[in-house]
Every structure is written in C-alpha cells, then in structure tokens.
Design goal:
mainly alpha, Arc Repressor Mutant, subunit A, 2 domains, 9 helices, 70% helix, membrane, DNA binding, Homeodomain-like_sf
C-alpha cells in the first residue's frame, strides 16, 4: 500500500469513527483518546495530522467532493448548474452523514469545506467564473453560506427536488440574476 493510500485509509477510519461517536455524543463530549481508540489510530497520528475534529470532517468532505467530481463525464469543465447538480447528487448520497453533521452543530465546517472546494475548482479552471461577481474575493464565502443553507432546507424538507432541479434552482439564484 502506498503512503497516499495509507493516509487515505486512516482518514476514512478516523472520519467513520467520528461520525459513529457523533451519533451518540455531542462533539464537546468526544475526547481525542476515545476517537483514536475507536478509529484504531494513535494519538500521535491525530496530533500530527489534525488541529481539530472539525478538520477531520473538512478534509474528508473535500476529498469526497473532489473525488466525486473527478469521475463525472464533464469534470474537465463544468458550468455552475452542472457543478451544483453534481454537488447535490453527492449530498443526496451523503444525506445521513450531512444531517448528522448539521445536528452536531458543524454547519460552519460544511460552509468552510464548500468554500475551499469552490475556490479550488475556480483555481483549477474546472468552473469558469461567468460573471464579474464570481471573481469577487467575498463571493466564495457568500455562495458557500448560501448553498449550505439551501442544502439544509432541502434535506430537512425531504429532498423533494432532484439534484438536477437543485442545480437549475441555484444557477437561477446565483448566475442568471
């Protein structure tokens, strides 16, 4: 197993252990020792690689979104509606996990993660900014908060719209205005 695969495996294990603990305990009650024991990793590993438990979630979410986008047929370049459709497809698959994170009070971690991925996609020219507004330094923060807020509403209302409908809705809100 390559070092990258080992790193990925450990991230997956510690993330899974954290989600399992979050299902039963508030984040503030979860100790590093308990997390490491449940994940089968050392405390040294945790402290060497993470500043907080929120960072575990953020890194795993970023990896999941980027990995998912890479396997899409149009991943080399996509417009905003395609990006939002792909994002909501992934969030539909991860609805239980995302709901758990929201209920644990980790909405801000989801917002930061979305912002990081959005900026990465712009930097890699996977998403081309179609408006001057999208190039504004604060737009990534604005859109991250708005998308996560919409995602929370969509999840709480039972995901009635399809991911493609959500892609069109968000495109009309952010781009076509």
């Amino acid at each position: 197993m390559s070092p990258q695969e080992t790193k990925q495996l450990k991230l997956n294990r510690i993330h899974k252990a954290l989600l399992s603990l979050l299902a039963d305990y508030p984040l503030s009650d979860i100790t590093v020792s308990t997390l490491c024991r449940n994940a089968g990793v050392s405390r040294t590993y945790y402290y060497r690689n993470y500043k907080s438990m929120q960072e575990i979630i953020a890194r795993h979410q970023e990896m999941a979104i980027k990995s998912y986008l890479r396997i899409l047929p149009h991943a080399a370049h996509m417009d905003f509606a395609q990006f939002m459709t792909a994002y909501f497809q992934l969030m539909q698959r991860q609805s239980t996990e995302t709901t758990l994170l929201i209920n644990a009070g980790l909405t801000n971690t989801l917002i930061k993660t979305f912002r990081t991925v959005y900026l990465f996609l712009l930097e890699q020219k996977i998403i081309n900014p179609s408006t001057k507004r999208q190039r504004n330094q604060y737009f990534a923060s604005f859109i991250a908060g708005a998308v996560i807020s919409i995602q929370i509403q969509w999840l709480s209302e039972g995901m009635k719209e399809t991911p493609a409908e959500m892609g069109r809705i968000l495109n009309s809100i952010f781009i076509e205005v």
